[in-house]
Structures are given as C-alpha cells and as structure tokens.
Design goal:
The structure holds two protein chains of two kinds. Chain A is of the alpha/beta class. Chain A has nine helices and 18 strands. Chain B is an alpha/beta fold. Classes of the chains: A alpha/beta, B alpha/beta.
C-alpha cells in the first residue's frame, strides 16, 4: 500500500475562538485519517496560536501546527496564504480541508493556485474511494462530493494526480464529535516568513453583528415559508416555536417576502441545520431549501399541496391550510407539554 | 488618475432551468441545451467598473473565456458601456477547472493588458458556485485581493479603500493597487444596455464571425477586421498561441480536478405518516411525537 501523508484541517479562528466548522472538520478528518492510517493535523495561524491547541487536541487533532506571530493577529489574505503554503510545501500533507466560510473561500483558492493543486468548493460530504481513468486505478483518493447547478445535481470530484487534495466544506453539514478533555497531542511551531507583502492590504475597521438566532444549535426548528401568506401570518410560526421552545427558521421565499429576517434563512444560501425535529409550515421544499434541512432527524411538514416535494422527505405530514392547522397544533401542544 | 479596469465575466447556463435532459452521458452539462446568460454577479462587477470609470476616468475592458457563443455577453458589455472586449476561446481551453481557467485569464492579462489598476469579477458564478477563479487569478498575477467587495470608497495615491460585506461582519480595508475585487450582488444595481450603444454594437463581430461576414460582404477577412476595428466593433479573439499559453496548463491537461460522477438529486421518499388536518388528527400527531420522544 502506498504511503500517505497526513490529513490536515485548517483551523479558522473567529473572534479568538476556533470556528465551529473547523471542529466539524476535525471530526471528519479523524475518520479520513483513520481510513488512510495517518495522523490528523490541525493548522492554526494567530497571534495566539499555541493557546488554541488544547481545544484542537480535544477535538481529535494528533498534531497542531501553530504559526504564532503578531502580524497574524487578524486574517489578511496574502500573509496567511504565504505561511500556509510554506507549511504545506514543507510538510506535504495528503489532504487539506477548509471551512467554506468567507475566510476559507478567500484563502483556499489562493493556496491552491500557489501550489498548482486542485480545490473543490463547498463540499457536503467527503469519502475515501478509488478512481479509474485511462486504464489507471487510483486508490484511497479523496472523494469530494458537492452539489452543483443550483443544487440540482450532486457531483463527485477527485484530484487524482496532485497533492495535496484540497476541499472547502460547507458549514453545519458534519457532526462535531464530543471533545475528549485532556486529550494530548504534539504541538509543532511552524515558521512565519513574511516581508513587505504584509502591507498589501490593511484592515482599517471591522464590525460584527451577532446572529439574531442560533439555528445550528437548536434541537427543534419551526420554519415558515411563503405559504404563511404575510408577516402577520408568520406570527403563528413564532407562537408555535415558543410553545415548543424552538428556534424560528424561514425559507428563502419567506425571507424575500419580508416575513422574517435573513438570519433565519434555512437552505443552500442560508444555514444548514440538522435538528431533532424540523417543522416545515407552508414550505413547498424546493431543492435549495431541502439542501439545508433534509438531514434533520425528524421532519414534520404542513402544507396545502399534497404534491409538494417537502412531503417526499417528511416523516410526518398534514395536508391542510397552515392558518387553520397551526392554531390547532398550538392548542393541542399546550395541553400535552 | 485614469484607471485601467479589467472585468472578468462568464457566460453561464441559467441554472434555474436545469432538467435531466441537459446532462450528457459523461456527466458533463450540455450547455447548448440551456439558456445562456451573463453571470449575474459579473454584471455587478461590470457596473462597479463603469461607475469607477465615471468617477476617475479611464477604460473598462471585459474579458471572457468560453465557446464562440460567449461573445454574446461581450456584445452586451459593449452596449452597457465597456470600452474594449476580449474573447478567450480555443478548443484547447475546453474542460478547464478553476486552476486552468485562472492561468489562462492571467496569461491573457500579462501578455496584452499590462499595466492595469484593478481586476473586478463577480463573487461567484451560478453554474459552479466555486468563487475560486477570482482569488486564483489574483495569485497568478501576484496582486492582492479583496473578496466580497461591495463598495469602493476612495482611490487615492495608488491605494484604494474598500468595504467588504461578509454577512455577519463588515470590514473596511485599504489595498495597494493593482488589486482584484470580487463583487457581490449587494454592491449595486447593474445598468441596462443603452439604446444608442445597442444600435451601434449590433454589428460587433468576434473572430469566429469574421469569415462568414467577409463572404457575405465579398471582402477579405483583413478588410473586414480593419473596418470593424475602425468603428470599435471588433471583438478581439485570442487563442492559446495569442497568449503564449503553456499547453500543459490549459484545458483538461491543466485541470487537476476531475469529475468522477454526477448524479441528479433524487428524493428519497420516506415512510410518510399522514394525519388529518382536523382536531383529532392534530391530537394524534402530537401524541405520536410525544411517544416517539421527538421533542427531546
């Protein structure tokens, strides 16, 4: 069997903490590293990189590669790309994974271009498998699985002849395994060689707004679509959510119609969720919406149209007008819970 | 200070209308079976370029890489106010992934369009949604980048101040020129083609259309090109040799990523339990959900 290099996860730092998507990737990375029989590395660049290693070990990293330098206090493209590219050239990992966040999608293509290697954007699944081309069999390659053409197709992409194999992965689609507190690993400092390229781009100001809603950590989500009819009609969604202790979600159509703020949007261009229960009210279930919620453990759909695609993926369904069914459901729940 | 602004544009299949019939057996998309449109966010990039030209003076050059028919979006660009348009088209460019595409575009810029001040492109194209070509072109050109750039605040003394909209965060950054920006749809509302320019540019022709045009007019190819150039109606058309491309880095040989397979999304069809919409149906549903411990 061929010798493989390590599996690496680029550990994104968001306001001084490791981003959730990086922890999700460590979970997947552990699985891939296990199949390949290699170690899992996490690369972290920050002015405070070494202090973040503990959390990366707890989430499954065997080795943490830390680049610690005051010039890396905030993400800027060229310095980060340079340090990461140098580390990859030096250590030759087999696979490098990034979150498909605004930062990951700024950084990863730059690194791929410098290394002249392949990069697949916005994957929703990763597997190890084989690939055959022109009579040649490539084994234990990274299968990079992603939706394309507006979510109408699922493509499996491979980079058979180049290393490292690289992909960005959509936030929220992979599970974060329970951390093992106190888990040990090897901390390796990586060099930071930067010159005048540091001042190509200067960050002058940064404002962040907290999300109005945390859909990803909700156990139950009650989501409304265009079928709620109006902003007033959407109030039933808030009412049902309150009874269930659920978070409020919305389809793109509901957001576009102004029924609910864009922070609540579930789907391909919104948040990907996998709650224990997803209640879809007046949502037809277009492919872009399903892409963001079909991994939910249970799905309850309430819609007037029996033919709506949402019923194809639902576990429970009521065919009826949401404006009549929801008040009944709220009443029945108040009696039971 | 007049600016030379290069806009990267792509003609894309209208992915809102993808059906099973437009997939070829090898899993690639039969683009001819779909309506082809100007990638929406590339129109935002063009609009940003045209507004900058209005503010600071200079020229807007639009480049696209694609089959001969991609000249359609270049004609459209001329009608919206672009000064010069370039079609990168060669059979050997076909099946390029983002790495080969960015090499080809960067090569065209470096061989013919130096020096420039800014490169603008849409945040991403609606066919692949990768958002990779912009940063990869910037890397190949050795210049800095600002993705999600929705406003150019000021250009002064070889530096540009830019607002970036990252959804949950907004940043103001200052970059040294030249710089590449990727432009999201929130940046602006693209102007419509101008009636006067529509009239003028309906006679614009790419290199692929010249021979037929010459035959029609009973003139030589050179005469036709010269005539079009004089009127600013010639769509410059460059192949691999014109941009001194390394053949190992273009098209399928320059593309490290391969499509292993493509599947249409099929709905799983779960065991749906349907309940009636009346009070008793709703009560049964709630009882079931409670018994199944669905509420946690």
């Amino acid at each position: 069997m061929a010798q493989h290099g390590e599996v690496w996860v680029y550990a994104e730092v968001d306001d001084g903490r490791i981003a959730d998507v990086s922890l999700e990737l460590l979970g997947k990375g552990r699985e891939l590293a296990g199949i390949l029989g290699v170690q899992l590395g996490a690369v972290v660049l920050s002015s405070d990189a070494k202090a973040l290693a503990v959390r990366l070990f707890a989430h499954g990293a065997d080795i943490v590669y830390a680049a610690e330098d005051a010039r890396l206090a905030r993400y800027t493209t060229i310095p980060y790309a340079r340090v990461l590219t140098d580390a990859i050239r030096e250590r030759k990992p087999e696979i490098v994974l990034y979150g498909a966040t605004p930062l990951g999608r700024d950084l990863a293509p730059r690194v791929a271009s410098a290394l002249k290697t392949g990069l697949t954007a916005d994957c929703t699944d990763l597997q190890i498998g084989s690939y055959e081309s022109a009579g040649r069999l490539y084994q234990q390659k990274l299968m990079q699985i992603r939706p394309a053409w507006g979510g109408n197709i699922i493509a499996t992409i491979v980079s058979p002849d180049v290393l490292p194999e690289m992909a960005t992965v959509r936030e929220g689609v992979m599970h974060v395994p329970e951390p093992v507190e106190g888990r040990q690993g090897v901390l390796v400092e990586i060099p930071v060689a930067l010159d005048s390229e540091c001042d190509f781009v200067t960050l002058l100001e940064r404002h962040t707004q907290p999300r109005r809603v945390d859909l990803r950590s909700a156990n139950i989500i009650v989501s409304g679509g265009y079928g709620m009819g109006s902003k007033q009609g959407f109030a039933l969604i808030h009412e049902l959510a309150e009874v269930l202790g659920a978070a409020v979600g919305g389809s793109r159509a509901a957001v576009d119609a102004g029924f609910v703020h864009a922070d609540h949007q579930v789907g391909q261009t919104g948040t990907t969720v996998r709650p224990k229960l997803y209640v879809a009210c007046g949502i037809s279930g277009a492919v872009q919406h399903r892409a963001g919620m079909e991994e939910s453990a249970k799905i309850l759909a309430i819609n007037r149209d029996r033919e709506a695609p949402i019923f194809q993926i639902a576990h429970y369904g009521i065919v009826g007008d949401v404006r009549e069914v929801l008040p009944r459901l709220i009443k029945a729940l108040k009696g039971k819970l | 200070m007049p600016l030379r602004i290069i806009v990267l544009a792509k003609q894309v299949p209208d992915t809102k209308n993808v059906t099973g019939e437009v997939m070829k057996p090898d899993g690639t998309l039969n683009r001819n079976a779909l309506a082809a449109i100007f990638n929406p966010e590339d129109l935002n990039a063009l609009e940003m370029g045209l507004e900058l030209k209005e503010r600071y003076g200079g020229e807007v050059i639009v480049i696209t890489m694609g089959p001969p028919r991609a000249a359609e979006i270049l004609k459209d660009s001329l009608c919206r106010g672009a000064d010069r348009v370039i079609l990168l088209s060669d059979r050997r460019f076909a099946a390029s992934d983002t790495l080969a595409t960015s090499y080809t575009i960067a090569q065209a810029i470096q061989t013919h369009l130096m020096p420039y001040d800014m490169v603008l492109c849409g945040r991403q194209a609606i066919d692949g949604d990768t958002a990779q070509v912009g940063p990869q072109v910037a890397e190949k050109l050795g210049i800095s980048q600002a993705t999600f750039a929705d406003k150019v605040l000021e250009i002064d003394g070889g530096r540009v101040r830019i607002r970036r909209d990252l959804g949950r965060a907004q940043e103001t950054v200052e970059a040294r020129l030249p710089v590449l920006l990727t432009v999201p749809k929130s940046a602006n509302s693209p102007r419509w083609p101008n009636a006067r320019l529509l009239l003028k540019n309906r006679r614009a022709r790419s290199g692929f259309e010249i021979e037929a045009e010459a035959k029609r007019q009973g003139r030589t190819v050179d005469q036709v090109v010269e005539g079009l150039q004089k009127k600013g109606l010639f769509i410059e058309t460059w192949g691999a040799e014109d941009i001194a491309a390394d053949l190992a880095r273009i098209g399928i040989s320059g593309s490290p990523t391969k499509v292993k397979k493509v599947e249409s999304v099929v709905l799983a069809g779960r065991n749906l339990k349907l309940y009636s919409a009346d009070d008793s149906g709703v009560r049964d549903l709630v009882t079931e959900l409670v018994e199944e411990r669905t509420f946690g």
